[in-house]
Structures are given as structure tokens and as C-alpha cells.
Amino acid sequence: SQQGEEDPQALSIQEGENATMNCSYKTSINNLQWYRQNSGRGLVHLILIRSNEREKHSGRLRVTLDTSKKSSSLLITASRAADTASYFCATESIQGAQKLVFGQGTRLTINP
Amino acid sequence: DAGITQSPRHKVTETGTPVTLRCHQTENHRYMYWYRQDPGHGLRLIHYSYGVKDTDKGEVSDGYSVSRSKTEDFLLTLESATSSQTSVYFCAIGSLAESSYNEQFFGPGTRLTVL
Q: N or C of chain B: less Cβ packing under 10 Å?
């Protein structure tokens, strides 16, 4: 069964706007990661946040983690057409170390 | 793609035939993974390896076997392919280097169609 559930399943915004995607999970985790997948390609690691961290930044990406609610969000600021892709959260649970469990993903479309 | 290749990239086969997919890495990473990606299911782990000849099952391992005789190669075998195994298959490697966090690097994928 999927550990991560993502919301929304699809998001369409105008270039320059901010995009927010959410991820919820079920079990205690070591860390949570976000990946991007362009159409027809493999996944690319974006950012990792550890269970004892609450917020992390990388360029235009901002990730938050709320372990009490078992949820995370990915914010992409000042979106660009090149950000069009699917975004997946993945969790490494305490019980299943060395393995990641992926959510179903959010399909993000940036309209020029 | 972080020194990961998959072969073949596309394959069409018939039900009941054996199929082997190959993943090759040049990064000398200890951990290797096979996932399948299907609409509505995201990525699901099939099998993974934590060293030469050391493998374990993932979430959807039924109908699949794996082998790892060398650090750089991880093979996924469908002994008798079924239509339900039509999917896109991704190989990944895990660093677990200095940080000890399992950031994974993915190959380009293999699109398998079982008729």
C-alpha cells in the first residue's frame, strides 16, 4: 500500500505563480524526499528533509514537514514552464530503512 | 542519469515468455532497486539489493525474481510474463554514503508490453 498520498493529483497554474503540493504519510519516518519526473524520463531527486527538521530550502523550492500531522508540502516559487512535470514524495520509514515508499504524484502544468 | 543504464529501453513480448531486464551502474553504489510505475499507483518497489548476492522483496515481488552477481549489475526476471506486468520499469541506486540518507538516482526506464 502507498505510504504517501499526494494532493492535488493535478495542478495547473500560470507562469510566475507559486505552486504548492502536499503529501501525507502513515508511519514514522527517518526522512521525506521529493522527486521530479519529466514526461518519459526517470525520477530526479530534488530535496530531502529529515524527521527532526521542519523546513528546508533549495533555490526556488521550499519544503516543510509536520511530523505530528504526518504531512509535508513542497512549494515552488515563481514557477517556470520548465517546472512542468510530475512531483512525487517518498518516505523512508523507521521500520523499512534503505527503502523508499512513493506517493502517486502530483502532475504540475505551468502555462506560459 | 547518474551513471545508470537500463536495457532494453523498450520491449514487446507475449504472455508466458521469460523476460530479463538489466540495470547497470558505474557509481559503485551498494544499494540497487527495481520499481514498476503504473497509472494511479505511482512507483512500487519490486525487489532491492543491498550487496552482491544480497537481495530482498519489495511491495510487489510476486512473479519477479532478481539476481546480482556483480556490484554494477542488477537483473530483473519475469519467469513467465503476464499482461498485468505491462508497465514501465525503473532501476535506481542508493548512495547511503557520507550522509547515510537514502537519496536514490534513477535510470531512464524500460517500457515493457506483454501481449
A: C
Q: Are strands A19-24 and A71-76 parallel, antiparallel or unpaired?
A: antiparallel
Q: Rounded to whole angstroms, how far apart are CA atoms B20 and B17?
A: 10
pLDDT digits (tens, 9 = 90+) for A61-97: 999 999 999 999 999 999 999 999 999 999 988 776 6
pLDDT, residue B42, reads 86
Q: Which residue of B has its CA nearest to A102?
A: B43
Q: What is the pLDDT of residues B25-68, one digit of tens each?
A: 998 888 999 999 998 788 999 999 988 999 999 999 999 999 99
Name the residue range of residue A69's domain.
Answer: 5-111
| Mean pLDDT on B6-34 | 96
CATH fold of B4-114 reads Immunoglobulin-like (2.60.40)
Q: How far apart are CA A60 and CA A71, in angstroms?
A: 20
Interface test with B, best of A23, A34, A91, A102 (most B CBs within 10 A): A102
Q: How many domains does the structure of chain A reveal?
A: 1
Q: Cis peptide leading into B8, omega within 30 of 0?
A: yes
Q: For position A55, which CATH number holds?
A: 2.60.40.10
